[in-house]
What does this fold into?
Amino acid sequence: MFSSDILLQLGWTGLATSSFYMLFATAFALVLKVNQVWNFGQAGLMVIGYFSCYIFLQILDFFPLWAILFSILVTVFAGCCLEKYGFGVLRERKSPPLTFFIFSIVIAQFFVFLAELIFGTTPKTLYPSLNSKINLFYGIVITNWDLFALISSIIIMSVLYFIMKKTKLGYSMTAVSDNPELAEMYGIKKEYIYLYSISISSFLLFWGMYLFGTKAAIFPSTPLLQLLVFAVIATIIAGIGNVFGAALAAVFLSLLQAFSILLIPSKWQILIAYGLIFFIILFFPKGFVINLEVFKIKKNKGS
Amino acid sequence: MEYFISLFILASINVILATSFNLILGYGGLLSVAQPIFFAIGAYCSALIAIYFDIPIFLSIIFASLIAGVFAFGVSLPSLRVSGDYLVVSTLGFQLGTLHIINNIEITGAAGGLSNIPPLISHPYRSLLTLLIVVCFAVLSIWMVRKIMRSAYGRAITALRNDEIAFSSLGRNPIRIKVLIVALSAAMAGFAGGIYSHYYLYITPEQFGIFATATLLTMVVIGGAGTVLGPAFGAIIITTLPEIITFLNLPVSIMAPLQGVIFTGLVLIFIFVKPSGLIGSTRGLDGLEIWKK
Amino acid sequence: MSEIEHSLETVNLTKNFGGKMVANHINIKFKQGFVSGLIGPNGAGKTTLFNLISGNIKSDYGDVYLGGKKINKMSDFQRARLGIARTWQMNRLFNSLSLIDNLIISQRSDYSDKSLSLGLFDFNRAKKDALYEDIAANLLKRVGLLDYRNSVPAELSYGQQKLVAIARALMNDGNIIMLDEPMAGVEGRTHNKIKEIILEEKTRKKTIIVIEHNMRFIREICDEGIFLVNGQIKAVDSVASLMNDVELTRIYFGG
Ligand SMILES: Nc1ncnc2c1ncn2[C@@H]1O[C@H](COP(=O)(O)OP(=O)(O)O)[C@@H](O)[C@H]1O
Ligand SMILES: [Mg+2]
It folds into this structure.
């Protein structure tokens, strides 16, 4: 019914788009796992990262490399402030989970409104022109942006994987997420670990926003209304505590959305994502990946 | 004069909305970010029923309110079976999804909004009469929440908020209570939405988005979550205060985000400086502290 | 009341948390009119066993029987309504409610949450409460806290809170009573009070299971000891012979 060219093209576009979704999902899942907060404030960090880069590039006219470096610093700094003066204070006060939720949602909204106030509600791009060179590969369109986005995200994810699985920092993050009090007894300072994880998360967010902003124009509300929800859905698909599972789930979501265009008009595509929330909560409340583990154990015992 | 009456009608509608939200957020300890959407469902359904069917407006408001309640039931039941965290996620998805649908279908007027809504009252003194009615309902909603919380049922809600695991292990069904109060609260919001649409006669989807959620949270948090009068007080302040800056004659493109910055900024200040809210006592068990274990 | 009717039994009850077995094919029968002491090192899975029986967590495998009926599929509140009552290490009292309300709400046939009108037409709360208020007040009197009936838990000492938690479990008036470390951090009069209550309930033919580290207490009141290590039952015997077992003592006191 559909030619293989079209299918391949959709698959490739979905994969390329997943580059930034993957980063957003990982950033969200990491903070949920280590800092144990549903950081909706992530949308605020995305706004900060994007618009600081916009200022450096378009208003102050910096050389792109410097603009990127400075924006990374700004985003990471903002992330650390969010952790230290926001979540950290609430944690110290033993605030109930609901206060964390309200804080993290409201801080995201605050930065969206602030950006709308300063930059207006019209969409903004990072560079005056977003044309990316087009390459044809066996009839499939592959832009330079696609390659740059995918390769850079894969490198970043690999480094993160290495950090999480092979370095002391990674072990400490896992220890703190498993049991903060116990980790402290082993001499791990959990406040520092929280700062490290939100810094990593902020970096991922910035890079995702940079990729997004070199492909499409962004409204100040885009991170909160579109991008954040994807990260949240990917996280619950993978199951809480499963950082790299969330990245995979983001790729899955992105592909699903790309192929869905064959069946439903593009304006309704986003509803698939929202619908998935209910599907997951109804049938796989612990996420897919963790559920698979449970099945395995059950089978072993039964036999 | 007409301007002030209209403002007070809006304030009273917000009192209903904030009071209903407080029932689940403050007393129930449940965060549903979709409360503005239940307001929207009430507003749109009531308007559409009134436009397409020949029934008394008042009945269409009641129907719409029931529809909002049923939707809330359907949205909250699956997630509340899992955990309160998932209620935030599922209501967020529901809010964005519903807004997207309203924005893209013909019957609701899409992004342009729905107009030509028949009025609840057509009379020379229609504003004044509406104000009287809506003030009555605002008082009624406050009375309802107070009555519930003072009944044995309210005692159960309080115990559930204090410790859900202990509550259910003692033989009480927590999901049933949670789903019912979420549904009741949504029905109240839907009712307020119905009155809104049949007074202002024009509604657009953008009124029910994240800005509405931020505003509603502001009302409840600065007034004092988990107090009977706090959210009502917060609603009146938050509705009337911004009218002062309208005299600056700023364009809408600046007004809306400026209000947003002020509201969310207020919530942030209250979270850290006065979590008990304006009305809450400083004994430490009111406002945001009410959820402490 | 026949013996079978209220017997509590677990068959191959199994649970793991992220690959760690915290309950490993647990088979026990708890007897009526018997006080069973559940002992074992920290992290052995004692509380987890309570959670599995009360339904706070679901088992991966295995069954729980109450009076010969499988109750696995039931949720925690349904099991509580069958008469399984418990306490927690951390008490978990309802901090915003007075002591008397803490108890009234724990009556397993409490009418309040069944109302579909959400209490809006509940105009005679006092009259309806009166039914349970007497029972609750009696229980408070039994634990010696009647004077505090209108206080909130935070106004009590830690030991007094433990007593309220026990009274709350008794309010259920079920046949199974599970107490999780009732003696931790409790001394003197309160200690004796708790002992007295447990022995009273024993004479009323209740099935009582107590998790406890205080060996003197275990020896004084328990009819049998169940020794749990790494989610497995190592021994079920009289407390005296368990304590004489060199191997078990070594595991317990971490030799
Ligand atoms: N909800 C849970 N999730 C993961 N691990 C748990 C959970 N509850 C208990 N555990 C683990 O199970 C083991 C047994 O715990 P527990 O039953 O509380 O031990 P005990 O009461 O004998 O001291 C511990 O290692 C604990 O960390
Ligand atoms: Mg224990």
